[in-house]
Amino acid sequence: MQPNASERDPYNGLTSLHPTLPPAAYWDAEAYRRDLDAIWYRSWLMVCRESDIAEPLAFRTVRIASQEIVVLRDETGALRAFHNTCRHRGSQLFQESAGRLKARLLTCPYHAWSYSLRGDLVRVPSKSLPEGFDKADYPLYRVALSLWRGFVFINLAEEPEDSAESSFDRGSGDLSNWPLETLVTGHRLTKVMNCNWKIFWENFNECLHCPGVHKDLSRLVPIYGRGLMARHDDPEWARHADNDAPEFSGRLRVGAETWSKDGHVHGPVFPGLTPAERAAGQTYATSLPSMFIVGHVDYMRTVRLAPLGPEQTELTAEWLFAPDALGKTDIDNIVAFGTQVLEEDAAICEVNQKGLRSMRHEAGVLMPEEYDLRRFHDWVRERHAALKTPSADSAR
Questions:
Q1: pLDDT on residue 330
Q2: Would you say residue 395 has pLDDT above 80?
Q3: With pLDDT > 70 as the criterion, what percentage of the chain qualifies?
Q4: CA atoms within 13 A on the CB side of 64
């Protein structure tokens, strides 16, 4: 769910009829391939935190559909990313998901071609070399890398546009008062959902499902219990324009301070937040297609997605806290609530996925409250339209 009310707009809702994407967009293998070519292989994707590879020679491997990428920190401390592929005959270089190199070389386990941590080929063990062979012509396949406030993003396009910061939705909340760079991970959840990645984002962008699916969350955020995300989602919002009660303003229920089982904070409150940010209860920022992050008064949450197939998506959630707060914070109370919400979302997304195979179902229809779904669908269509021909080097 992504609160996105704008005081400039009198009413957020759709006022005309709009169809959904066709059902095959969520299960067809060719549609999935087009999603990869047009979106996942051309977008800035969050893959980890800088702190996950904090020391020189540390590395992590990440998978984006069929593409396996290694992100490492070289001997100078610089972060770099490469395809996990040797230039000799295409062998996998790294077999572990994370670790620390024992030397300042990347050596292929198959035929021992060795590369510097900058990706340059420096050693070939063959007794002789073919005429015209030049090691400078065979560096590792480099991957664009961009940093944003302690997060590592990659882009698989050969010439990506802009940077990770530019990938955030223009309607995202301002997280500048949260100390993102210094936070540490208190808990991590990884889950495979049996649904297309777009199903998850559609669910995220509406709250019509909240009263039936998220009963505890709807009690914590009363406007969700009305099936709305924000004040201006109500066609009669003007009648309650001056009413700051939670069911109209979007704030947490009276007496609640944060997203937790009991609604109370369980550790130090971030000192730099404004009164409005404290009162809001949640502030969202979204970077399609791979992640969103939420700021609460005492911790932050990130959710990262990675496509595994037409009908499977991996979700990784992390709960971030101030370093000195971990020993003073009841993490279980906080994590249990967030996990419950994510499990509920995953379960209903899988229900949605299962119904899309009907031979009679050609398209659905959006309700007025699903205005952000229309925006998401338009974004998907625009990315597909921008891809005039499939990428020649994309994996099928």
A1: 87
A2: no
A3: 95
A4: 31
Residue carrying structure tokens 């009907």: 358
For residues 329 and 130, give the distance between their C-alpha atoms in angstroms, rounded to a whole number.
63
Structure tokens at 228: 């709305």
Domain boundaries, the chain: 23-43+168-386, 47-149
Q: Which helix (H) or strand (E) is 34 found in, with range?
A: helix 29-35
| pLDDT value, residue 329 | 81
CA distance 261 to 340: 10
C-alpha span between 355 and 347 (Å, rounded):
13
Instruction: Using pLDDT thresholds of 50, 70 and 90, give the confidence band for residue 392.
Output: very low
Q: What is the dihedral of CA 115, 121, 124, 130, to 10 degrees?
A: 160
Q: Which position has the token pair 């995202």?
A: 172
Amino acid code (one letter) for 372: D
Residue 2, pLDDT > 80, answer no
Residue 114 in tokens: 């060795």
Q: Is the dihedral of CA 388, 392, 395, 396 positive or negative?
A: positive
Beta strands in 56-204 (DSSP E): 58-64, 67-73, 79-83, 98-100, 105-107, 114-116, 121-123, 144-148, 151-155, 184-193
**pTM of the full structure:** 0.92
pLDDT at position 267:
86
Domain spanning 23-43+168-386: CATH superfamily: Naphthalene 1,2-dioxygenase Alpha Subunit; Chain A, domain 1 (3.90.380.10)
Q: Which two tokens stand for residue 230?
A: 């924000």
Whether 76 has a pLDDT exceeding 50, the answer reads yes
Q: Is the pLDDT of residue 33 over 50?
A: yes
pLDDT at 331 over 50: yes
For the chain, the distance separating the N- and C-terminal CA atoms, rounded to the nearest angstrom, is 32
pLDDT tens-digit map of 36-46? 999 999 999 99
Torsion of CA 218, 253, 286, 209, to 10 degrees: 10
CATH topology for 47-149 is Rieske Iron-sulfur Protein (2.102.10)
Q: Does 235 sit behind a cis peptide bond, omega within 30 degrees of 0 on the bond before it?
A: no
C-alpha–C-alpha distance, residues 300 and 152, integer Å: 17
The alpha carbon of residue 345 and the mean position of all alpha carbons in its chain are separated, in whole angstroms, by 15
Q: How far apart are CA 50 and CA 47, in angstroms?
A: 10
Tokens representing residue 346 in the block: 């995953």
